[in-house]
Amino acid sequence: IERIGEVLLKSWDPLASVSGPNREEERARYIQNVVALLASGASDRQVAEHLCALETKTLGYQDTDPNTLLPTAKKVRLLYRRLTSSSQAP
């Protein structure tokens, strides 16, 4: 979760301009939700649409296009796959 959180923090951080005591808890919850989505076998498109929905429906951003989030989705999906396949190796 930590490594995926690092990638998301560098590539996608809609909370960067938000301050407050709950920001880190909220960010951790978003990261956990993305990891759960990846664990379910989500595609890049599904992850990008999830990130887009977080931005628009939860955080109130406007005009977010899931296509702009596809590179981030791909990064985290490939990292998740690499991390989980290496942890399952004998």
Note the gap between the termini: 21 Å
How does the overall form come out from the CA principal axes?
Answer: globular
- Reading the helices and strands in chain order gives HHHH
- Secondary structure class reads mainly alpha
Oligomer: single chain
Share of helical residues: over 70%
Mean pLDDT: 87
Strand content: under 5%
pLDDT < 50 stretches: none
Number of strands: 0
**Helix segment tally:** 4
Major β-sheet, in short?
Answer: none
Radius of gyration: 13 Å
Report on the architecture of this protein:
- The protein has 90 residues and is mainly α.
- It has 4 helices and no strands.
- It has helices at residues 2-11, 23-39, 44-58, 66-87.
- The mean pLDDT is 87.
How are the SSEs ordered, and which strands pair?
Layout: H1 2-11, H2 23-39, H3 44-58, H4 66-87
Q: What are the salient characteristics of this protein?
A:
90 residues; globular; single chain
Brief characterization of the structure:
The chain is mainly alpha-helical and 90 residues long. The protein has helices spanning 2-11, 23-39, 44-58, 66-87. The mean pLDDT is 87.
